[in-house]
Write a structure and sequence with these properties.
Shape: globular
Number of helices: 20
Distance between the termini: 32 Å
Structural class: alpha+beta
Bound molecules: flavin-adenine dinucleotide
Number of strands: 11
Strand content: 5-15%
Radius of gyration: 24 Å
């Protein structure tokens, strides 16, 4: 008999959501895949869904966030080693993500041949986010680096086998002695992150070799995540201006490069991921792309990490919603299960709409990267990247707070199981800040719209939903005009929001049941909605929307 048994009976507490297949329960994701990649074999995603939903993996996620990374600047003999130590559970998660091909694997020729490598990986990334999002930072950067790195073909040829392999090796040693590698990025300095033109880190040419023009780098980076990656793309000033450079941790002769890890950041969330401050003490790096064209060069990487921010928040929303549904299905108050209380139904259905719309938009964006040879898809990749990053990430924190509240006080505690909600909540704002904060994304949308065919491409994207909802028809008729007229900076957020809602609605028209589409349009576009979740109009098909979202 436990001590509590002597004073009271424990009841009306819920069984946590463990040992469930996260793919099988995610009908919104399945619908998005069927729409965007009907020929895809989803068996690997189902296997991944089983793995990431397992109790064992959830334990790894908890331990990796509890026993956080530790910086070791020196050996016990006083030598600089600049290493970060992680709990074994972090490495277990990394190995699983690499094995699932969520990093550079997408660019292996056999993956590319499928025609839907980005989409398959995007779905896997969403599922893995439900397990643990913070260690996905180096996974995401290793995925995103390839388009930029390919502009130094010699380096890419040498590193591609390790970047695309399914093996994870955390050791700090020469890349060619490792079965697999990871990569990161360094842009942000103390004086500026959004405006990287303010970078002061300098790179002086010191010769050339098989990897091209070589430089000695002196300076710093104020945010430098996952410093145990094997190499980084960084920005530094050369005689021609800001340039993109490849900087490995270990040099080809086996010596440690001049990269000093100063501190690890003490962050709100994202605890399992080490984010550092670094200095470059004459570090050796090689030019990638053209000297002086560093910003567009590294943005080829930034574009895919922005896709991952949208996917990441979509995964976190799905996770928070599933936990809220699991809880309210088992917990009673005032004589009924919470899920049967009318006002709770309104909250849950509203969250379900938001989660499905986020999934639909981020998966549609992933499709654009698989069709890079199609003109319409090129415009959509350019247009939807800032829109999805801006809008989905903006909705994330609000969503997490509301989902947490569905659990009452248990939602706010840090313990395992229900405490996952606290982790989700702390993770949410990060996706909105890094890789271009909200305003930067909205301003980037204005730049994207300057492409001559943006209005026509948007109209084409919305056309399949024409005639299905009067409010969407009205918005769809206005948007191309607003796009042509060009919003000012002051209106950029509002425009990003309206384009996002219109595209989300048009996607739901094609992928979701009618009641989901109708409720989304009524609330988000038609004005039958308040400022908090849970204010859908009374005619909404609450039960059908909730049923579709149930994780079991
Ligand atoms: C946990 C974490 C990990 C990170 N890891 C990395 C990493 O690995 N590599 C890396 O390079 N960076 C990294 N970053 C840095 C991140 O990308 C930057 O913090 C971000 O780009 C914003 O830059 P900043 O912090 O200098 O803010 P600022 O550039 O000062 O921006 C502050 C605010 O002003 C807004 N703003 C800026 N310009 C304008 C404008 N013209 N009009 C209106 N509003 C504007 C921005 O939207 C933002 O809201 C990380 C950040 C965090 C929090």
């Amino acid at each position: 008999m436990t001590q509590s048994d002597t004073t009271h009976e424990v009841f009306n507490q819920v069984e946590p959501l463990v040992d469930v297949n996260l793919f099988d329960g995610n009908r919104a994701l399945q619908a998005a895949l069927k729409f965007n990649a009907p020929a895809m074999d989803t068996a690997p995603l189902r296997a991944l869904g089983q793995l990431v939903g397992s109790a064992d993996m959830q334990t790894h996620a908890r331990l990796a966030n509890t026993f956080t990374p530790q910086l070791k600047t020196h050996s016990r003999f006083g030598h600089r080693i600049d290493q970060v130590e992680f709990h074994p559970s972090y490495h277990a998660l990394m190995a699983a993500a690499v094995d699932a091909g969520l990093h550079g694997r997408v660019f292996a020729p056999e993956e590319q041949a499928s025609g839907h490598a980005h989409m398959k990986r995007a779905a896997g990334f969403m599922l893995f986010t439900e397990l643990e999002p913070s260690m996905l930072c180096p996974i995401s950067m290793t995925y995103a680096v390839t388009p930029a790195l390919k502009d130094n073909p010699a380096i890419y040829a040498d590193w591609a086998p390790q970047l695309t392999s399914r093996a994870y090796d955390p050791a700090l040693k020469l890349w060619r002695e490792k079965p697999g590698v990871t990569m990161g990025m360094g842009m942000t300095e103390k004086q500026g992150g959004s405006d990287v033109r303010a970078n002061t880190t300098r790179a002086e040419p010191v010769g050339s070799d098989a990897w091209g023009q070589r430089y000695s780098v002196v300076g710093h980076k104020w945010f430098f995540s996952a410093p145990m990656c094997d190499a980084f793309l960084i920005l530094a000033q050369t005689a021609s201006g800001l340039s993109c450079l490849f900087l490995p941790r270990v040099l080809p002769d086996g010596s440690l490069n001049g990269l000093r890890i100063q501190r690890l950041k003490d962050k709100l969330g994202n605890k399992a991921n080490a984010s550092s401050e670094v200095e470059f003490h004459g570090a050796t790096a090689w030019l990638v792309g053209e000297e002086g064209r560093g910003i567009p060069q590294i943005l080829a990487m930034g574009t895919l990490t922005r896709l991952d921010c949208a996917l990441g928040v979509s995964g976190l929303m799905r996770q928070a919603l599933s936990i809220a549904l699991n809880h309210t299905t088992q917990r009673k108050a005032f004589g009924k299960y919470l899920i049967d209380q009318p006002l709770m139904k309104n909250v849950l259905a509203d969250l379900a709409l938001e989660s499905e719309a986020a999934t639909a938009l981020s998966m549609r964006l992933a499709r654009a990267f698989d069709r890079a040879d199609d003109t319409h898809e090129q415009v959509m990749a350019r247009l939807l990247t800032p829109i999805a990053k801006f809008w989905i990430c903006k909705r994330g924190s609000h969503f997490a707070q509301e989902a947490m509240e569905c659990l009452g006080g248990n939602g706010y505690v840090e313990e395992s199981g229900e405490g996952i909600m606290a982790r989700i909540y702390r993770e949410m704002p990060l996706n909105s800040i890094w890789e271009g904060a909200g305003n930067i994304m909205a301003l980037d949308l204005l730049r994207a719209l300057r492409k001559a065919d943006a209005a026509a491409a948007l109209a084409q994207e919305l056309a399949p939903a024409k005639g299905m909802h009067p409010a969407l028809d009205r918005l769809a008729a206005q948007l191309p005009i607003r796009v042509e007229e060009m919003a000012t900076e002051l209106e950029a957020r509002r425009l990003a929001q309206d384009v996002a809602l219109a595209v989300q609605a048009a996607l739901l028209a094609q992928t979701a049941p009618l009641e989901v589409f109708a409720a989304f349009c009524d609330s988000r576009i038609g004005g039958h909605w308040g400022y908090s979740f849970g204010s859908l109009n009374a005619a909404t098909a609450f039960d059908r929307i909730i049923e579709r979202a149930q994780p079991r």
